[in-house]
Amino acid sequence: MAKDIEVGGFAAKDYQDPPPTPLIDPEEFGKWSFYRAIIAEFIATLLFLYITVLTVIGYKSQSDTLKGGDQCGGVGILGIAWAFGGMIFVLVYCTAGISGGHINPAVTFGLFLARKVSLPRAVMYIVAQSLGAICGCALVKSFQSALYTNYGGGANGLADGYSKGTGLAAEIIGTFVLVYTVFSATDPKRNARDSHVPVLAPLPIGFAVFMVHLATIPITGTGINPARSLGAAVIYNNEKAWDDHWIFWVGPFIGAAIAAMYHQYILRAGAVKALAMGRDIEVGGFAAKDYQDPPPTPLIDPEEFGKWSFYRAIIAEFVATLLFLYITVLTVIGYKSQSDTLKGGDQCGGVGILGIAWAFGGMIFVLVYCTAGISGGHINPAVTFGLFLARKVSLPRAVLYIVAQCLGAICGCGLVKSFQSALYSNYGGGANGLADGYSEGTGLAAEIIGTFVLVYTVFSATDPKRNARDSHVPVLAPLPIGFAVFMVHLATIPITGTGINPARSFGAAVIYNNEKAWDDHWIFWVGPFIGAAIAALYHQNILRAGAAKASGSFRSSSNV
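The structure corresponding to this sequence follows.
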């Protein structure tokens, strides 16, 4: 637990890494809080399955044209993804202080491997979650038995045309994204830095579930939660519901284990030593941060080559960009295949352009939230370039970040192609390109202005002067950054497919490797770099001019 100590006349948290939970803790069996937590997990999982499966059944019935439905009726795949992600956000928010808000055996398993919960608690949670899921699906069936049976009961299963290996990989990577987000959002080191983190943690967790559903509903219906898959299979109890059911246990448990090891042994290595906390001082009778404009980063800093945190940050950029491309390109391919009427698709199928924009913006929100304290959460060479121009990162760090981002993007697209090669090739591989009817000048302008919006938002959201005024800012910063990406995609997908990230464009072009993917590829490097440079100059030389003076005025006025 964090303790408050006096440091130079101000309150600051003395961070200590919490000790591992005992494998078996006999004392917890005598505490009501233990049983209360199990009940909370049961009820939360029941509610989760009731709302989400009811949403799935409602959508299928409303869009069934053979029974009087509207082809474009119902909430669509996007609405289903929101149901799953939104309910996780709500329920984690409600139960986090009681049970930890797991609501998923894979999350419980990952936290058990990281020694965050005891073995008896983990087992009882998984039992409660599974029973809750069964009861939730049973409630849906009891209220509308015919619709439940006719429309698949919300059961998971491999879609036609996908192999078991593809389904297993989708479950492993999807669960990795979720459990990695859980670890990052609930990291006690974050809590030591900022007390607002526990309140906000459910938001990126819910967004992670939403993003994974956007990407993998076309493949497996999205499990990433063994209790959810078990509950639907037990109540629907159809042979198809049990076909390949093992995928929805093995995949999530492997994904959770990898996430636990990645977070505990790579990202959290040396956490106590790496922790740097703000110092609060008393000014004019209230606590305010003593703001000093940080000095420019040296062009080359030889000391950082001897620090593990430097290499850990590079790894984090690689993994984050890999996950970003995997989820987003998978979403693009899934949408195009589901809406291809020439191959049996539905004109109103898939997540739509709105869903694709959400995939890009939402993943940036989640990944920046997860990696901001490790690497700064750039995940984009244009962002790195802009921060380098503003002297926020050194030249070696900037170069290695860009290399890691490009390699991560290539690997992310490579994963998508390896799992569904035919669909990847048929539907353009998520590669950027100028749409018909647009000139190179229009495309370049779209990339410049779009990247300016993004990098300007990054500078504004991470401005140290804001942090000096309000401790909420570092925690909230990923949200406007994600929304900036979302908004730019809404506007420019019809023009260029939206690059604003050279690594994203490069990775897709390398793996798709079609002549069209390389046509005008220079736009997706030149445009973002120009946009980032303009944003850096605007923020540093106009908006931040006299920042220290303005902050001094803020402090002095508080004494009046």
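The beta strands are 3-7, 10-14, 280-283, 286-289.
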